[in-house]
Amino acid sequence: MMGLFFFIRASTKDRTEQIKLTPRESIDQLLSQLQVYFTQRAYHITSVDLQHQTMTFEGFVSPSCFLTIFLSGLTAIGLFCFSLVLSFLYPSLTLLFLRLILLCPVAGLFYWKKSGRVEKVLLEVKMISEHNESQPDENMQSLVIVTAHRDELAQLQKVDFLKSACNP
User: Fold this and answer.
1) Which CATH number fits domain 14-61+121-167: 2.40.30, 3.90.1690, 3.30.160, 3.30.1370?
2) How far apart are CA 51 and CA 38, in angstroms?
3) How many C-beta atoms lie closer than 10 Å to residue 152's C-beta?
4) What is the pLDDT of residues 122-133, one digit of tens each?
5) Is 60 exposed, middle or buried (CB count within 10 Å of its CB: 0-12, 13-18, 19+)?
6) What are the tens digits of pLDDT across the range 96-135?
7) How far is CA 29 from CA 7, 70, 82, 164, in A?
8) Domain range annotation of the chain
9) Helix count (H) and strand count (E) of the chain?
């Protein structure tokens, strides 16, 4: 039961990660392609900070119907097993313990309420230098740091323009 409880709680955990991209060509071209990509995925720009060279996108991520049903089913199985154990210990209360299964929709409701949320994607541009004392300004490279949910980053890394335009 403890494992099931922590599994249900972990289903709503924030899993924000970062990837660093080094564009092979123009930084402006990469940023415009990323902007189009995130706009097509139902995100919208909420802020642009030119001083810190960041762009923030937001979009609502809806909960998964499959995962809601799956978690409710797992909870029903777990509560059924728990009620069987309790019924062996207290045989006179078997019907009362079997009614615990009626609590299984609570797990699906918990997941549904917690996982439907606004996700943020942060694009950050940084200039990094490769150490060369003779010509310090010539070896400056642009680096784009994308901070988002790990599932969103996994989808982003599959996009064709990113594979051809960047070194991950």
Assistant:
1) 3.30.1370
2) 22
3) 22
4) 888 877 766 555
5) exposed
6) 999 999 999 999 999 998 888 888 888 888 777 665 555 5
7) 42, 42, 58, 12
8) 14-61+121-167, 65-113
9) 7, 6
> Which residue, among 12, 24, 32, 29, has the nearest Cα to 111 in the 3D structure?
12
pLDDT beneath 50: ranges in the chain: none
Token pair of 28 as six digits: 């402006």
Global pTM value? 0.67
Match 């990509």 to its residue by tokens. 37
Please report, to the nearest 10 degrees, the dihedral formed by the alpha carbons of residues 79, 81, 83, 87 taken in order. 180
Q: Which two tokens stand for residue 92?
A: 């006179």
Burial class (CB in 10 A: 0-12, 13-18, 19+), 132: exposed
DSSP result, 78-110: HHHHHHHHHHHH-GGGHHHHHGGGGGTHHHHHH
